[in-house]
Structures are given as C-alpha cells and as structure tokens.
Amino acid sequence: MSPITVAVAADNAGVALKKLIAEQLEGDVRVAEVLDYGVHDDSDDRAYPRLGLAAAEAVARGDADRAVLICGTGIGMCISANKVDGVRATVAHDSYSAERSIKSNDCQVLTMGSRVIGPELAKRLVDEWLGYSFDPSSASAAKVAYITDYEHQS
Ligand SMILES: O=C[C@H](O)[C@H](O)COP(=O)(O)O
Fold first, then answer.
1. What is the pLDDT of residues 67-120, one digit of tens each?
2. What is the pLDDT of residue 154?
3. 9: helix, coil or strand?
4. Which of 74, 71, 62 has the alpha carbon at shortest distance from 98?
5. The domain spanning residue 25 has which CATH number?
6. Is the CB of residue 71 below 6 angstroms from any atom belonging to ligand 1?
C-alpha cells in the first residue's frame, strides 16, 4: 500500500490524545500526510460534531484516506462521522475490533474515547490499524456494498 493521508480531529476532551496520535502518525512511513482538523488546545470548546464532521467530510471528498477522531468516549465522533455520505466509522478500543473494522467493514474512520482508553493502547491500536487493508474481492465486500446501496437510495 502506498503512503496514505490521515485526518485527525478531537474535541477538547480528546485533544491531548489526538496530539500523541498525530505525532505517531507523522513519524510513520505508511503515512504521507496528517491533516489536523483541530481542536488544537483544550481552551477551544467547539462541540465534537463540528470537528468530526469536518474530518469525515475530508475523507468523503478524498482529501484524506482515513481518519482518527477522538472525543471523551469516541461515541459522539462515531455518530457524527457516520452521518457523512460514504463514510463508515467505528469506535474501537480493542485490537480485534480495530482489525475487523477494516477487514470486514472497510471503515475509513476509527474513533476512540480519551476517557476510555489509555494512550499507549490507543497508539498501539492505531499502529495495527494502519497495517490492515480491505480486500474488495472478499466475501465481506458485498455486505459493505449493501450499506452503500442503501445510502444511494435515500
Ligand atoms: O461523545 C461525546 C464525547 O464523549 C464528548 O467528548 C463529551 O460530550 P459531553 O460533554 O456531551 O458528555
């Protein structure tokens, strides 16, 4: 896989973890570019959908290949990102879910909760997650296509 562009975003609950994840991504040879949609410090109290939607829209436009979004639980970021057409987002705080989010579901967006997961595990999951790719010839592809078809109907 050639190096990819990864968007990151967080609300003020997740900004410290986002900074660690962004630094790790910037040092990863599998990542060509990190696009940071904010917030940049915890004095910025913009609500999570504003940040998460901006990053997810970047994925939908093709400006980013994937995104990592952080809030307190990961839940609000996940709900927000999934509202953007063509975007599949999941909360994952364990290795197996992070893996299957790519291999089964072709999720472009991983969300995590800074109040749920510790920084070292979060960094490890992102490292693993970068190593997975979706196989469009797999049996999972038709299942994901069902979701895309549904989106296109509405
Ligand atoms: O899902 C939402 C996030 O956890 C957010 O960081 C905190 O939201 P709240 O302030 O509404 O609890």
1. 999 999 999 999 999 999 999 999 999 999 999 999 999 999 999 999 999 999
2. 66
3. strand
4. 74
5. 3.40.1400.10
6. yes
Q: Which ligand 1 atom sits nearest the alpha carbon of residue 13? A: 6
- C-alpha of residue 140 to centroid of ligand 1, in Å: 32
Partnered with residue 89 across adjacent β-strands are 109
Provide the number of structural domains found in the chain: 1
CA 12 to ligand 1: nearest atom: 6
**What's the pLDDT band for 4 if we cut at 50, 70, 90?**
very high
The mean pLDDT of 42-54, rounded to a whole number, is 98
Q: Which domain holds residue 56?
A: 4-153
Closest CA to 34 of 63, 56, 13: 63
What integer best gives the mean pLDDT of the chain?
98
Q: Which of 64, 71, 84, 122 is catalytic?
A: 71
- How far away, in angstroms, is 1 Cα from ligand 1 center? 35
| Most ligand 1 atoms within 8 A of CB, residue of 48, 51, 79 to mutate | 48
Which residue has the least CA distance to atom 3 on ligand 1?
Answer: 72
**Mean pLDDT to the nearest integer, 130-153:** 97
Q: Annotated catalytic, 107?
A: no
